[in-house]
Specification:
This protein is mainly β. It has a single domain (3-109), classed as Cyclophilin (Beta Barrel). The protein has helices spanning 20-26, 104-108, and strands at 3-6, 10-16, 31-37, 41-45, 63-67, 72-76, 95-100, 115-118. Strand 1 (3-6) and strand 2 (10-16) form a beta hairpin. 29% of the residues are buried.
Length: 119
């Protein structure tokens, strides 16, 4: 997994974390999906069933994670409805698969239904 592209033209370069979850996701790339949002989180379905070892609720801005419950990838860029402050809190445990430098303001403009590609 090298990058995530959100239409129109937002590219996020990923610093991948080498774990079983990431390796399983990489077997199904490239993939394309439609974005959904939850506060300052973008997530999208992958239909990939990947290992959930080391799943956690402790995440940070810039984390890219796999959400086993929804078979989705998540990009965290600020607070979510489960947060009590700025730090993101996922809806349920996720597996961190990478980190990305991001422009939160730009990502706040991405709406549900936007096309996303992962390579």
């Amino acid at each position: 997994m090298k990058k995530i592209t959100l239409e129109p033209g937002i590219e996020l370069n990923i610093k991948e974390i080498n774990n079983a979850t990431t390796r399983e996701i990489n077997k199904s790339l490239p993939l394309e999906s439609k974005v959904m949002t939850w506060g300052d989180e973008i997530y999208f379905n992958t239909d990939i069933k990947a290992p959930a070892k080391d799943a956690t609720l402790d995440i940070s801005v810039g984390d890219i994670a796999y959400w086993p419950q929804g078979k989705s990838l998540c990009i965290f860029f600020g607070s979510t409805p489960a947060s009590s402050g700025y730090k993101p809190v996922p809806a349920s445990e996720v597996v961190i698969i990478g980190k990305v430098e991001l422009d939160a303001e730009k990502l706040r403009e991405v709406g549900s239904g936007t096309t996303v590609k992962v390579e």
